[in-house]
Amino acid sequence: MTELMLPLLEKAAPDARVITVSSGGMYTAPLTKDLQFGDSNFNGVEQYSQNKRVQVALTEKWAEMYKNKGIGFYSMHPGWAETPGVATSLPGFSKALSGKLRTSEEGADTVVWLALQPKEKLAPGAFYFDRAEAAKHLPFAATGGSHVVIDSIVDNLRSMSGLSA
Ligand SMILES: NC(=O)c1ccc[n+]([C@@H]2O[C@H](COP(=O)([O-])OP(=O)(O)OC[C@H]3O[C@@H](n4cnc5c(N)ncnc54)[C@H](OP(=O)(O)O)[C@@H]3O)[C@@H](O)[C@H]2O)c1
């Protein structure tokens, strides 16, 4: 979907940006070519983490591929926020921490900040948390080298979406 919007984004250059909302859940997941859990029994929480890792790696790839097009690509983590999605998907967690999670507005803060910062102050393809660049990998999480498979994931996503290579 993001790539299909490139012509519109190019029209908005040099200040166009794509801000992808990922999650701290991606820290536990290495990038994997198995996008649809074909290799093992489906686990929704793991699938979520893997998809969120794909978003961070794709953002990095887009920044590299389209670096001369005047489009900024950034990914971010909103922190735990009390939203309808959390209430529905994690009812026990949501109930136990009711009133202690971030508000939706607090979760959205870094998205808005990324949209408004002068581009020179932002790092292309970087991952942000609370208005600052954050690491994409945690020590000892064994995810560090996994982004090398991004090219084959891009090919796979393009073929699944009927886009040309
Ligand atoms: N909440 C957290 O603590 C948390 C933590 C880390 C990351 N995140 C990330 O933050 C993002 C938002 O999460 P959330 O908790 O706010 O979830 P949410 O309460 O489920 O809200 C999701 C929003 O996305 C919209 N949406 C879903 N599918 C769509 C589609 N195909 N086209 C257009 N709009 C669509 C929904 O619209 P409708 O209401 O109209 O269906 C809804 O407004 C997600 O990417 C999530 O992974 C959230």
Automatic annotation (TrEMBL):
Name this polypeptide is given: Dehydrogenase/reductase SDR family member 12
Organism: Morella rubra (Chinese bayberry)
Highest taxon listed in the record's lineage: Eukaryota
Gene3D superfamilies xrefs: NAD(P)-binding Rossmann-like Domain
